[in-house]
Amino acid sequence: QVQLVESGGGLVQTGGSLRLSCAASGRTFAMAWFRQAPGKEREFVGAIRWNTGITYSADSVKGRFTLSRDNTKNTLYLQMNSLKPEDTAVYYCNTRLGSGSWGQGTQVTVSS
Predict the structure, then answer these.
(1) How far apart are CA 66 and CA 56, in angstroms?
(2) CA atoms within 13 A on the CB side of 54
(3) How far apart are CA 76 and CA 44, in angstroms?
(4) How many Å apart are CA 51 and CA 34, to the nearest integer?
(5) How far apart are alpha carbons 13 and 33 in whole angstroms?
(6) Residues 54 and 48: beta-carbon distance below 8 Å
(7) Mean pLDDT for each 10-residue chunk of the chain (112 residues)?
(8) What is the pLDDT of residue 39?
(9) 69 and 75 in contact (C-beta within 8 Å)?
(10) Most CB atoms within 10 A, among 23, 25, 63, 110?
(11) What is the pLDDT of residue 106?
(12) Contact 77, 26 (CB under 8 A)
């Protein structure tokens, strides 16, 4: 099972930016970012294919969030721009199917 460690979260004002990182112990066909806001279910944010770098994102973040990866480091990134208060959540990475071992996540808080 792929082990994952997320980092890079923090407190930022509306309109600000953050870059999240996810160190993975291995690779699968595609990796993804998810997030969970207080009182809500975990939701899909975006995914990236390890070999091609092709990405796809949820409509709620399209045009603002960008996924990338460093194959040499087995690390996944999520560049978040133009952040909004509704982006506040704990962010997790995992395989696209969620078959990896869920990490602690990293908290992102966007103040208004």
Answers:
(1) 9
(2) 5
(3) 15
(4) 20
(5) 21
(6) yes
(7) 93 98 89 96 96 94 96 94 98 92 95 94
(8) 95
(9) yes
(10) 110
(11) 98
(12) no
